[in-house]
């Protein structure tokens, strides 16, 4: 194992590895041998040299502590392993939730950078009207927006029924709190509608920071969006014509993606019909609004 920890971090890592080698490692026949390398730059250079087979380079370690720029290079050689499936939910719950969430988002940023995808969408988490949850979740969003900026990616959050951000008012609060240009809003009319508001009226209030739109219809005010077929745009009760009109008149020119909840158990023909119906409806609406 290679790492570049020093001081207290190195001491703690050494203690953890010694404990592992004495217990589980001995039982499983796995002993970790550590090479400590001073500085992240030196670690990066040594790993890349080994990965690309430079003359005189050492063999790659089984484990290494790496940063995003190193991970991207190692991915080119298919040298990364996704460890998320190696942990149970119970095991993950023993870790600080923020650290787990940050790790998952960083992986998403790295993948999006490699694929040329400009936006990562997240849910707000937390519980409605619990101020502690709102502050904790928005603090995390602010921190991750700073990291997203380093990748040239925009982190978007949407109002979600029952969550810490669930309405136009709470969306405006997070917009006011997080000023980073790498932070935006994912506007989903279904969640706003099921929260008791009219999306066509709510959109203009937040449109200045909207960088992605999830769109679907629904019958009634929820809490569920209803059956998958009823989420096809034009099938439900949301004024999507008015919503699209507000979108165009407000000058929005970003991505619009159709999202259906509960479609995973439908057949491919059923899913295709819902998608085709929505595409036809939205194209007709956009043409009508644009004149």
Please tell me about this protein's structure.
The protein is 49% helix and 9% strand. The radius of gyration is 24 Å and the shape is elongated. The chain has helices at 7-22, 24-28, 40-51, 68-76, 89-92, 97-115, 131-151, 168-177, 189-194, 199-206, 240-249, 268-290, and strands at residues 2-3, 35-36, 119-122, 154-157, 183-187, 210-215, 256-258. Helix 3 (40-51) runs parallel beside helix 4 (68-76) and helix 11 crosses helix 12. The chain has 291 residues and is of the alpha/beta class. It contains 12 helices and 7 strands. The model has no long low-confidence stretch (mean pLDDT 89). The chain has 2 domains: 2-76, no CATH class; 97-290, Divalent-metal-dependent TIM barrel enzymes (TIM Barrel), CATH 3.20.20.150. It has a 5-stranded parallel β-sheet with strand order 3-4-5-6-7.
What's the gist of this structure?
The protein is of the alpha/beta class and 291 residues long. The chain has 12 helices and 7 strands. It has a 5-stranded parallel beta sheet. A two-stranded parallel sheet has the order 1-2.
